[in-house]
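Q: Can I see a sequence and its folded structure?
A: Here is a first one.
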Amino acid sequence: MAEKSPKGRVALALGSGGARGYAHIGVIDELQRRGYEIVGIAGSSMGALVGGLHAAGSLDEFSDWAKTLTQRAVLRLLDPSITAAGVLRAEKILDAVRDILGDATIESLPIPFTAVATDLIAGKSVWLQRGPVDAAIRASIAIPGVIVPHVLDGRLLADGGILDPLPLAPISAVKADVTIAVSLSGPAPDDDAAAAADPEASPSSEWLGRLLRSTSGLLDTNAARSILDTPAARSMLSRFGTSSDGDDITEDTEPVPKLGSFAVMNRTIDIAQAALARHQMAAYPPDLLIEVPRTACRSLEFHRAAEVIDLGRELAAKALDGYRNTGPEIIITPETP
């Protein structure tokens, strides 16, 4: 007979949110430190990446590698592209993940795992529960307009967070003592003021500017300049809000946040995903919700692994202490986008 976990069996839903997904690693570390056994995982986007690596027993190796990344290394791994169906190809970072995972398949994993993606043609959520783990992760992390979509089994797949940013449904049938959801879109102290002064998406222009300035150091200088100086490139960059000309929304009577095109798109996605997550929690309420503030780090700051992992560990400890003291009730801090 298998030994019973001292604290209980956990089914884990890991949400989408870019680099904030490093917090999932801290949550898993804290669960294991306290003696919980993870018996099922579903993940969207970065949640799929972390969940798949943990289910394969390779998360520690990935965590150690991620902590070594610098901004320059991250830029090389993200593999910027002007002509592809996304600003980033991200194949290099997936090559690193493949080296860690090997040829693992989902059906052979010791922990049941579901990677959630979105079928862009059919317009529906897809649960990937068979086949290579790396291919499932690649499909789930394809952020619309940022990372190139992935073709898998004849379907054009993109980020699972489009329709299912907090995938609770896939773990609803898992035999567990506790269901835990980890959201990467939680509110922060003074959230409204922070959003007005520095909305989540507004740093994207700064990041993209750094990316473009750095490109000449990573690619052939003349070739990079010739690509970036084309009408198509200039048009794309203007849509991503690298310049605020024409994008400011102003009134004579009161100031409003200055949002470029990319800022508007990103905030729109935030609002939609928050609503979808609430819908999922209403349909499949978790026993415990751990919320990582969306201001914890910017979506593409993959060089901040160590501090975001520590934050996840801290938030998990606080939530688990509350759960232990209050019993099986949902701990939720409501967010009004």
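Q: Show me another, different protein.
A: A second, unrelated one:
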Amino acid sequence: MTDDAAAALEPGRRIETLDELTEEQADSVLALIADAARTDGTTAVSEQGRLQLRGGPREGIRHFLLTEKGRLAGYGQLEDTDPVEAPAAELVVHPSMRGRGHGRALGTALLAASGKRIRVWAHGGKSAARHLAQVLGLTLFRELRQLRRPLGPDAAPLPEPVLPPGVTVRTFVPGADDTAWLVANAAAFAHHPEQGSLTQRDLNDRVAQPWFDAKGFFLAERDGELVGFHWTKVHAEQRLGEVYVVGVRPGAQGGGLGKALTAIGLRHLAAAGLPTAMLYVDADNPAALAVYEGLGFSTHEIDLMYRTES
């Protein structure tokens, strides 16, 4: 359907709200996101948001296509899947079409569609995004830090992984380990609304990506039970390795398993010849920050999340 109120704000502007995108629309949105990333130095729509562009309708997901005189000028996505938190949104305007109020129009449409209860990501914390959040009446809610660490021959040596007694590590087997990993992931991230809610469909989406490599997906077991994991990712174009997700089930926390798994994954990335590793961590998680800083990581970039007042 078309948001006629938003469209009326500017002659020639139209905002269409859809439950799913065609392949052609998804391609156009991905091209817009890529153009913006080349200009901004960071991607305005997260990996999860990009994966949700294809594959048909998804519960709680809506897409907002802003066109100006028939040309795609901006994109917004609203995800209303968390039973407690406000809907989460991301948006981007093509670099060549900024300064025309498109960002404000998209933000206003997303705000209205959410019932004026929303959380919005500003990846990279750019000044324009901070200004838009202020215009929309949003306040800073969350700070997500991207940390990086050199892995090359001149970098500080990585620590030897020391596993707790009785724990062994092997690599993930797609299909055979799916259910056990989803259960362990939900337990490890019960406090984390994004990571902890991953489904089989979300896992399938990632396994189907060109970057997926089961050899870089490490599972820790004790007495046949999956107690922790470290899933690494390689960004081939940037020659960048990622500590994609490290999780330890509550009953296995506190014994050094997370640190050992992190070291195993980092050694894998270093052995692949990658010069740098990166990861994301919440700024309000001092324990995790201390572990990663102790492993030689430092802040490279900051993502900010804004929200309406509770």
